[in-house]
Every structure is written in structure tokens, then in C-alpha cells.
Amino acid sequence: MAIITSKVLKLTFLTTGGKSFIISVPQPRENLTLAEAQTVMETVIAKNIINSSSGELAAIRDIRVIDMTTNDLYDPPVA
Question: Which InterPro entries match (predicted)?
């Protein structure tokens, strides 16, 4: 049993097909800035690095850092 904390950076793009495409980055750097995240996303869009099933990445839709706390209440017995 343990309490586990973690963070995830969610970079959400809008595709040319009108859908969302999310890149999740576990444990982002603590001092990550909005400007750095935007620059990375703009580079991914400009260089057409990723092509999703709903088209090319066309615009920045959202940038979030999500803090998660998991309270693991049960650990199964080890055989």
C-alpha cells in the first residue's frame, strides 16, 4: 500500500479533420514554461512530424499539466 504522486503534460492539438490529438508526456520538468510548450507544439505542427488518422496536426488546442495522486489501498499477496 502506498500513495503515489505523478504528473503528466497533455499537449492537445486540433487536426485538419476537426478532431483532437493528444500527446502525453509523463513527469514533465518542474520549471516547464508555457512558452516552451507552445514552441514545441508549433514545431511539431510546422514540421508535420505527426499525421493522425484524422489528418495533420493543424493548431494548438490546449496545454495542461495534470497532477495525480493514487492511494493504493490493497496489494495482493505475493505467491
Answer: DUF2922 (IPR021321)
Amino acid, res. 18: G
pLDDT digits (tens, 9 = 90+) for 13-52: 999 999 999 999 999 999 999 999 999 999 999 999 998 9
In angstroms, how far apart are the furthest CA atoms of the chain?
53
Give 70-77 contacts, CB < 8 A, sequence gap 24+.
Answer: 70/3, 70/4, 70/5, 70/6, 71/3, 72/1, 72/2, 72/3, 72/4, 73/1, 74/1, 75/1
Predicted model pTM: 0.85
